[in-house]
Amino acid sequence: MSDTDGKKPLGLGGPRSGQVKQSFSHGRTKSVVVETKRKRVVAPPKPGTAGTGAATGAAHLGDPSKRPAGISDAEMERRLAALRNAKAREAGEAAQRAAEEAAREEERQRKREEIEAKEREERERAAAARAKAEEEERARQLAEIRASRAAEEQKRPAKTEARAPAATPAEEAPARGAAAPGSAKPGLSPRKTDRERDDRGGDRDARAKAKGDNDRRAGKLTLTAALDGEGGRTRSLAAMKRKQEKARQKAMGFGQKAEKQVRDVQLPETIVVQELANRMAERAADVVKALMKMGMMVTMNQTIDADTAELVIEEFGHHAVRVTDADVEQAIDSVADKPEDLQPRPPIVTIMGHVDHGKTSLLDALRKTNVVSGEAGGITQHIGAYQVTTDKGAVLTFLDTPGHAAFTSMRSRGAQVTDIVVLVVAADDAVMPQTIEAINHAKAAKVPMIVAINKIDKHSANPDKVRTDLLQHEVIVEKMSGDVLDVEVSALTGQGLDDLLDAIALQAELLDLRANPQRPAQGAVIEAKLDVGRGPVATVLVQSGTLKRGDIFVVGEQWGKVRALINDRGETVGEAGPSVPVEVLGLNGTPQAGDTLNVVETEAQAREIATYREKAAKDKRAAAGAATTLEQLMAKAKADANVAELPVIVKADVQGSAEAIVQALEKVGNEEVRVRVLHYGVGAITDTDVGLAEASNCPIIGFNVRANASARQSANQKGVEIRYYSVIYDLVDDVKAAASGLLKAEVREHFIGYAQIKEVFKVSGVGKVAGCLVTEGVARRSAGVRLLRDNVVIHEGTLKTLKRFKDEVKEVISGQECGMAFENYEDIREGDVIEIFEREEVERKLA
Ligand code: GDP
Questions:
Q1: Is pLDDT at 647 greater than 70 in this prediction?
Q2: What are 354-395's pLDDT values in tens digits?
Q3: Which of 22, 106, 434, 579 could be disulfide-bonded to 345 (CB atoms 3.0-4.6 Å)?
Q4: From ligand 1's centre to the CA of 389, what distance in Å?
Q5: Is 175's pLDDT higher than 70?
Q6: Which of 53, 9, 11 is CA-nearest to residue 32?
Q7: Where residue 473 falls among pLDDT bands split at 50, 70, 90?
Q8: Domain 264-323 maps to which CATH number in 1.10.10, 1.10.3470, 3.40.50, 3.30.420?
C-alpha cells in the first residue's frame, strides 16, 4: 500500500480494479482515465481549482495511514488521474497556447484543422457519450462496491463515510468546471477541446475510440495496455512535447500577430535586415524568410528600403514608425556640458602663411625641439598632428598639415578645431598674397593669431618691415602697440622657438580652453588614408570627451569600432582625451579630412547614421548634377556620347574653393566639349582619389592641397597625373587648354559624288552589292557614304567594297558603273541614291 503513493497508476489501480472488474474493467479504467483527462482539459478556466483539488487528493493519497484500504482504491485512481491531468495540463498549457496561436495564425492550417477538428469532434462526441455512459456505469458499480465493502468492513465506517464526501467534490470539480466555461464561452471551448485532443496525441484518441467502439479490440488492448500502459503514456507525453515544440517553431516562423508584444519599430529610410529583425525582436532568419515570401531575395546583411521594411514590420504585426532621416543623428550625444565638468585642454595650433615662408620647417623644428628634449627617443610618427610640451609644462597640439587646408577644411565642415593660428611670415619676404589669405581665414574664423617672423637668421631679414606690412592688414602686433603676439624665430637655427611656444601657451591661457573629458568622444578627422596593412586609418583630434579603445563611432559617412589608438609617437594608447591627436584603427571605410567623429552607443546606430549620411551626401551630389559612381558616369557619358569630356578630380583645401573650382570648370567648354568633375572634395589627395583617377583615366587637380605619401606613390605607379595649383585662374586656364585638345576639330563636309543604284546583287561572302552608276563627281572607297531613299537619309556609314568590274578600286568617276557594298548594312534597294562625301577636320580652340 505504501508504494501506492508512487505515481504509478498501473501498480495502484490495475490489479485491484482488475480484481473487481477483471479485464473488462481494466480496459475501461484505462479508457476512463483518458476520457476524464479530456474532460478536465475541456475545463480550462479553473486550473487553480483543479490543481488544488488534485493536490489535496494527492496529499491525502500520500498519507497511507489516513487512507481507508477499501474505498480509496478506485477513488484514488480517479484522484491520481486528476492529479496526472492537472500536471499534464500544467506542463502543456503554455506550449499548447503557443500551438493554438500558431494554428490560429495559419489560415490554411486552420482550415485543414477545422476539417479534422469536425471529424474529431464527431468522434469525440461519440466517445464522450460512451465515456459518460461508461463512467456512469462505473460510478454505479463503484457505489455498489463501496456499499458492499462498507458493509463488509464495518470496523471503520465513520472514516469511510468521511472519505467519500471529501472525495466527491475533488473528483467532480473538474466536471463542474467543464460545464461552466462550456456555457460561458461556447465559441472557445470546443476549439480548445479539439486542440487539446490534437495535442494530446492521436494514439490516445484512437485507443479510446477503439475501446469504445469494439469490445473485442478493447480486450486486445488490455494486453498491450498491460505491457505498455506506462510506456504509452510516456510516449504520448513525448509526442506532445514534440508537437508543442513544432507548434512553437511554427509560431515563431510567420505572422506572430496574436498575443505577441506589438512593438513600435523605428524605421529609417533604409535598414539592414538584421537590424530590422533586432528592432522587431524577431529572428533575422524569419525576417529573411518573410522577405523571400515577398519575392525579395536578401541576406541578413543587406539593406532594404523603408517601404519594404514597413511591409515586413506589418507582416510581423508590429507598428512601423518612420523616422525622418535626420532623426538618426539624434543618437549622437549632444548634451551640453556642465561648466563644472569642463577641464582645461591644450590649444590646437595651425601654422599658416605664404608658401616658402617656412611653415614646414617651423613645424619640424618645433617638433624636433620637443622630441629632443622629450623622452621618446626621437621616433616620430607623422599622423597629421603632434603634441609639444613646453619647458613650463604646457601641452600644445600642432596640426601637422601646414597651410590653409587643415585649418579651413575643418571649418568648412563645421568642425573648427583650430584655437590659435601661427602666422608665419618670412622676415626677408614680408607679407605675401597667401599671408593675407591666412589673415583673412583666421579673422573669419575668429581665431587669434600669433605672428612668427621667420628666417630671422637671414642677413636680409627685416622683421620690422613685416610688422609694418601687417599693419595694412589690420594685424597690429605687440611691438606696434597692438595685441597680437609676435615672435622672431628661425626654423633653421631654432632661435626663438621656445619663445614661440611660450607665446602660444600664453595665448591659450587667455583663451581658457576647456572640454569635458567625461563624455562620449567627439573629434575631427585631420587626416585619413587607406593603409595597406592596417586598413582605413584616420587621425582624429579629440575635441571633447575621451576616445577609448572599443568605442563605437560614426565618422562622416563611415563608422567603426576603435580597434587601436596610436599617438603621435607611434605608441599604442588606450584612450585619447581632449586635444589629443590619435590615429584611429577600426574604421569600415576612409572618412574625409574634416569629418567629425562621434562616439555612439551601438553599432546599429553608428551604421544607421553612416548610411544616412552616405545617402544624404549621394543625394546632394546627385542633385548637384555630379555623377557619383563610375558606372553612373559611364552611363551618363554614353547618354551624350557626342560630347567629349575631360574628366577631372578636384581636391581643394576648403569646400568653398572646391565648389568655386567645380563651378568654374563646369563652365569650361561648349556643347561639344566639357569638363566633367568626377569627384571633388576637400583635403589631401588620397589613394581613393588616385584609384578613381586611374579607373577613369583622368588627372587629379590639387588646389592648395597635396597628395599624401601613399597617394603620391600609387599615382606614380599608376601613371596618374596630379597637378597642383594655388591660383584658380591658372587651374582653369590649364584645364581649358586640355579641354581644347579634346575639342573635336570642326568637321566640314564636302559632297564628292552621287551614285544611283541600278541593281542589287547578292554575292556570297560579301552580302548585298549594289550595282551603281556614278551620276556626279566621284565615288571614293575611303569616303563616307549615305544611303538616300526618296531623299531621306536612311543610312550613313562607310563602304565595304568599291568594285569596278571585278577589281577593287579606290575611285570611280562620274559616268562609270561600279559595285558598292556598305559596311554592316544590307538594306539597299534599286533606285536608292548613294551620297558620297568627305570630311575635313579643322582644329579649334575653346573661347
Ligand atoms: P613652406 O612652404 O611655408 O612650408 O616653407 P618651407 O618650410 O618649405 O621652407 C621654405 C624654405 O625656406 C626652405 O628651403 C627652408 O629651408 C627655408 N627656411 C625655412 N625656415 C627658415 C629659417 O628660419 N631660416 C632660413 N634661413 N631658411 C629657412
A1: yes
A2: 888 888 889 888 887 765 444 444 455 678 888 988 888 899
A3: 579
A4: 23
A5: no
A6: 9
A7: confident
A8: 1.10.10
Q: Whose alpha carbon is nearest atom 22 of ligand 1?
A: 455
pLDDT at site 740: 73
* Residue 492 alpha carbon to ligand 1 centre in Å: 7
Tens-place pLDDT, residues 103-141 = 666 666 677 667 777 777 777 777 777 767 777 777 777
**What's the pLDDT at 424?**
92
Which of 361, 455, 458, 490 to mutate for ligand 1's pocket (most ligand atoms within 8 Å of CB)?
361
| C-alpha of residue 380 to centroid of ligand 1, in Å | 20
- Give me the pLDDT at residue 93, please: 64
Q: Where are the domains of the chain?
A: 264-323, 346-509, 522-623, 628-740, 746-842
C-alpha cell of 141?
458499480
CATH 3.40.50.10050 fits 628-740, yes or no: yes
Tell me the pLDDT of the chain averaged across its residues: 75
> Distance from the CA of 143 to the center of ligand 1, in angstroms?
119
Residue 365 Cα: closest atom of ligand 1: 20
For residues 407 and 434, what is the distance between their CA atoms, to the nearest angstrom? 14
What's the 531 CA to ligand 1 centre distance in angstroms? 30
Measured distance CA(294)–CA(312) in Å, rounded: 9
Which of 3.40.50.360, 1.10.3980.10, 3.40.640.10, 2.40.30.10 would CATH assign to domain 522-623?
Answer: 2.40.30.10
pLDDT of residue 507: 93
Which ligand 1 atom sits closest to the C-alpha of 490?
23
Name residues whose C-beta falls within 8 Å of residue 619's C-beta, 6 or more positions apart in sequence.
Answer: none
* b/e per residue 76-94 (b: at least 16 CB within 10 A): bbbbbbbbbbbebbeebee
Topology match between the domains 346-509 and 628-740: yes
* CATH code assigned to 746-842: 2.40.30.10
CA distances for 287 relative to 102, 268, 284, 604, 655, angstroms? 17, 17, 5, 17, 42
Binding-site residues, ligand 1, Cβ < 6 A: 353, 355-361, 402, 454-455, 457-458, 490-492
Between CA 466 and CA 354 the distance in angstroms is 13
User: Does domain 346-509 bear CATH number 3.40.50.300?
Assistant: yes
Looking from the CA of residue 364, the nearest atom of ligand 1 is 7
For residue 823, the model assigns a pLDDT of 87
> 525 - beta bridge partners?
540
Asked whether the beta carbons of 655 and 413 are under 8 A apart, the reply is: yes
CA of 361 from ligand 1 middle (Å) equals 5
Ligand 1 centre from 448 Cα, in Å? Answer: 24
Ligand 1 atom nearest to CA at 355: 2
Q: What is the mean pLDDT of residues 152-173?
A: 46
